[in-house]
Each structure stands twice: as structure tokens, then as C-alpha cells.
Amino acid sequence: MEGLVMEARHLRYALALAEHGHFGRAAHALGIAQPPLSKQIADLERETGARLFDRTRQGVFPTAAGEAFLSRARRALEEMAAATVDAGRAARGETGRLRLGFIASALLDPLPDVLGRFGGERPDVRLELHEMASGRSAAALLAGELDVAITLGSPRGAGAEHLVSVPVGHDHLIAVVSSAHPYAGQASVSVNQLRRQPLIVAPGEDEPAVAAGLRTLLGEDTAALDGATVARDVHTIIGLAACGVGVGLGPSRMLAAPRPGIWFCEVTPRTALPDLVLSFADRHRSPVLDAFLDTVRSNCPDVGAALDRRFGGVR
């Protein structure tokens, strides 16, 4: 005779019998007839090689072997129930991890709202956040080391054509100065004015597109950029400008970081900067990434529309 293939129902049958102490009452509670229950319990005892229940005139009672079996059976059913819950939560993107690479200016917009909302709605998702220059972030995404990246401009390199990339912000160049600076109070500053000032800029090797745009704007032969103070990110640009080190040049999203002692000016002529771009590998999409994209959709309607165009309205 082939051995019994033990299933969760067999465990439930044994537990019901132990609870009701009677085959008829246990069968009624389980919604099955008594003979099949009696047969399943007998098969279970043959499978375990032990008598699990004493059948007496007073009722049916677990033996010592039965108590040991029932203890494990309860834990097994609890684990199975927990496994079902965990699987459902993972499928809904409520658990797991999300690896996000981003440039510092994304912390001005849109990341504060996006991460705040996502973390509030998915507290059990482990966020692994990595601030890095656009080139490094793009390379990490292409290497599978990140799930999603926010870069200045679309990622480039081998495999970039397989990424889904959508703009999450548009920027143009602005200037920031100390409130004690002669330009404070002006609505705008011209390129000629900038050429005569000490400048504060982001590292060219980190964001080459911005550096190229500045050189085009100021002129290749200008000494202004060659002698510029190089700041790590937009927050440092603002801080150094507040200290009176010079005129900080950066993206218009710096307007989201006002602080005492500084003044923002438009730069004329208006100079567009590369878009802030969200990218991910479609072939590596996970429920957690889909949940993150849903949060981005809620906070950035233009992104949702772009994703719908990319996927035909289907996630």
C-alpha cells in the first residue's frame, strides 16, 4: 500500500478530532461525512506508525504520540497560514527591498514626497538608498545593482536601450548669491555679469552635460569656470553662496531649498539643463518596483502619462 501523502487537510482533521473528542461532531464541524474522517485518521496513524487517538466509550482522546503530532500540526498550519499571508504581501509589493540610486538634487524634488508617501504606505519594504553621480547610478542600474535610478539625463552605455526612462523634472540654470551680494534683489543676472564673478559649480566629471552647457553659455575661453569653486552637490552650492564665496550656478529645483541669507536669480539667456530622469529595467520589474512606480504616478502625473504611453496603459 502506498504511503499517505500528508496534506494540510489531514492536519486539520486531526486537530478537529482532538478538539471535539468525537468522530461525528468533528466530521460535522469539518463539513464532511464521518466514514471518510475515520478512514483519513486511520491512514494518518498508519503513515506515522503510531496510534494517535484512543477510542473510548467516553470519547476520542489524543495519545502521547498524538499530543506530540498535534503540537507540530498546529505549528505547521500556522506556518502555512503565515506563508500564504507573506506570499500575498510580497505579490502586492508590501514587503521586499527597493534599491534606488539618485543624484542630490532629486532630494529637493520629487524624492521628498515620493519617499515619504512610499515609506508610509509600505513600511515593511526595505529601502536601500544610494546617492551617486548620474554616470555611476546609470552604470549600477545597467549592472543590475539598482532597481531604479534618478539621473540627470537618460542613462547611456551598453544596454541603456533596454531601459525604460521617463522625465520626472525639467530644469534650467539659475544663480544663487548671498543676500549681501551686489546681485541680491535682482530678478536676473546676465552671462556677462557671471563672467566677472567667482563661480560655484558642481563637478564636471559627475555631471558632464551640465558642465558642457556652462562652457557653452560662458564661452570656451573664459577663466570663470577654470577658477570656479567645485561643490559636491546643490546643497553645498547654496551653502557656499550663503557664505559669500561667489555666485552659485545650479538647477532651478534649488528654488525648493530656500534659506535665510540667500537670493536666487534667473540667468539670461535662459539655459535649459538636462531633464531629471527616472529609469528602470522593465525585464527586472518586481511587485515592489511596481508599487514604487505607482507612488511616483500619484505624485508626478506627467510620469504616469509617460509610463502609460510606454506600456499601453497596462502595468
Automatic annotation (TrEMBL):
InterPro entries with a match to the protein in the record: LysR_HTH_N, LysR_subst-bd, WH-like_DNA-bd_sf, WH_DNA-bd_sf
Signal peptide: none
Boundaries of every HTH lysR-type domain copy: 6-63
Keyword check for Transcription regulation: yes
Keywords assigned: DNA-binding, Transcription, Transcription regulation
tRNA processing is among the record's keywords: no
Family: Belongs to the LysR transcriptional regulatory family.
Pfam families the record matches: HTH_1, LysR_substrate
Gene Ontology cellular component terms for the protein in this record: protein-DNA complex
Stored PROSITE patterns: HTH_LYSR
Organism whose genome encodes this protein: Streptomyces malaysiensis
Protein name as catalogued: HTH lysR-type domain-containing protein
GO terms for MF: DNA binding; DNA-binding transcription factor activity
